[in-house]
Amino acid sequence: METVTPSTFLRTASVCQRLGKKSAAFIIVALAVVVGYISLFRESEIMAVDRELNFANVAVKHFPLTDNGKVDWWQDHKQILKKKFSIPVPAKNGDWYISVWDYGDGFKAKPNGDIRVFNADTQDMQCFNNDDSKCIDKDLLMRIEGNRDGSVDIQVGDKTIAVKS
Asked: Could you give the CA distance from residue 43 to residue 72 in angstroms, rounded to a whole number?
């Protein structure tokens, strides 16, 4: 997808002057609809999964933008996660947690040289499978929590949404 720059707007304005106001408005609205459609209905892809005890991390590319879309993603993918990646795995008390991270720009190597525990460069990265070359920038999309009573809660931003398990 092309990045929108000031020169893009200038080219668009030049085309609009030649076409007339009504035609230009129609073209701009049509382009906005197409771009919106592509960004809303793109297919998400699980890029990496990592598990330790009853905690799991999942990196996803093209995650849904809306809260309802995120809940639907969980409903559509929970069986895939169970079958293909063997998550979630409940602890003895029945609790489990899945953090879903934005894959963003892809995997990066963890910076070398600074071994401080609270280094900002490394604290803001989530690495998968204990591989320092398979890290992403931390951008938490949602957290799914299975409770000992069998209920499931999804945390999206400041909201907690109870869903049927």
From this structure: 13
Pick the closest to residue 59 from 152, 134, 159 (CA basis): 134
Q: Which two tokens stand for residue 136?
A: 């992403």
| Residue whose C-alpha is closest to residue 163's, from 92, 72, 90 | 72
User: Measured between alpha carbons, how far is 41 from 38 in angstroms, rounded to an integer?
Assistant: 5
Q: Dihedral of CA 56/58/64/65: which sign? A: positive
Q: How far apart are CA 89 and CA 102, in angstroms?
A: 22
Residue in 92, 103, 107, 97 with CA at minimum distance from that of residue 56? 97
- Residue found under tokens 């000031």: 6
- pTM listed for this prediction: 0.70
Q: At what angle do helices 6-19 and 21-40 cross, to 10 degrees?
A: 140
Task: Give which of 126, 109, 125, 120 is closest to 58, Cα–Cα.
Answer: 126
At 155, give phi and psi (nearest 5°). -105, 120
Q: Is 103 within 8 Å of 61 (Cβ atoms)?
A: yes
pLDDT single digits (tens) 18-57: 667 777 677 788 777 766 665 556 688 899 999 999 999 9
Q: Can you say how many angstroms the Cα of residue 129 is from the centroid of all Cα atoms in its chain?
A: 19
